[in-house]
């Protein structure tokens, strides 16, 4: 499964912006012709031509590149400016104020709740200011017209706000279900792949710890799988607390992977040794049962242009050595620590 399949928010906003560019680009071009040739609103007409040009540019760029927040911000700002200026210049009977009702929906779809509130409130303030200062609201009755306009706008704004909040929460829950191990709360393999391939921009001094709980099957056989599950939860918690920086992933039944950056190999090995020692010296109390567990750790350093699979294989080889030479050990390729362990076996 590809992590991009879960990124529904970006996909939604990209599609909305593309269709906005297509629709507003055509509409603004038509209105620009009217305002320049017939209505004699030169400023508005040239602004609409600018909006049209931006729509074309953004539409083409979105077909080749990922969506950027500034593109949506500029689009919303330009559309708002055109509509507000149009309402200011034109007579009420032209009906340009109707466009205002569509904007809160677009704000929230493109920008989310934070910017949606800001843009919607700003538009409402500007439109109220313009209408209050209009010389005439003919053919509408001022009070009836103002109240209806306000209530409809606020209703659409409220629905947009609630919908976006619900959509964002559902998207967040979906990501959590897909990216987190449901038992321990640690990341899963998909999460580790996404972190390594997408989020990690600087992989220099990066290390991978691959660790396995020693003889964990005996814990399940002796105490039952319920107790074994609770032991896994406790171990995952200890790993997160002790690691301090970096990320913890559960990649197998009793196997975990930790990814973090260190200044040098000694720092990485010292941290791995600290993890091993903390687990060894922690007595896990599950329903009155005192359980001791140990871990074997394989450590690998990242090499340039290495894939995650290659990176993990290096750590797995060291984990195999740790288990082969007695378990409850830390091994890393060509490290002083490893040589000491080998000589002692």
Helix content: 55-70%
Span of the ends, CA to CA: 43 Å
Strand and helix order:
HHHHHHEHHEEHEEEHEH
The chain-level structural class is alpha+beta
**Unreliable spans:** 335-345
| pLDDT averaged over residues | 89
Supply Rg: 30 Å
In one word, what is the shape? elongated
* Biggest β-sheet strands, sense, barrel: 5 strands, mixed
Q: Order of strands side by side in the largest beta sheet? A: 2-3-1-6-7
Number of strands: 7
What does this entry look like structurally?
Helix 8 (225-243) runs antiparallel to helix 9 (265-280). The chain is elongated. The chain is of the alpha+beta class and 345 residues long. Helices cover 64% and strands 11% of the residues. Residues 335-345 have low confidence and may be disordered. The protein has eleven helices and seven strands. Strands 2-3-1-6-7 form a five-stranded mixed β-sheet, sandwiched between helices. Strands 4-5 form a two-stranded antiparallel ribbon.
In short:
The chain has 345 residues and is of the alpha+beta class.
Topology readout:
Blueprint: H1 8-37, H2 42-62, H3 69-89, H4 103-132, H5 142-179, H6 189-199, E1 206-213, H7 216-223, H8 225-243, E2 247-250, E3 255-261, H9 265-280, E4 283-286, E5 289-292, E6 295-301, H10 308-324, E7 330-332, H11 336-344
Helix pairs in contact: 1-2, 1-4, 2-3, 3-4, 4-5, 7-8, 8-9
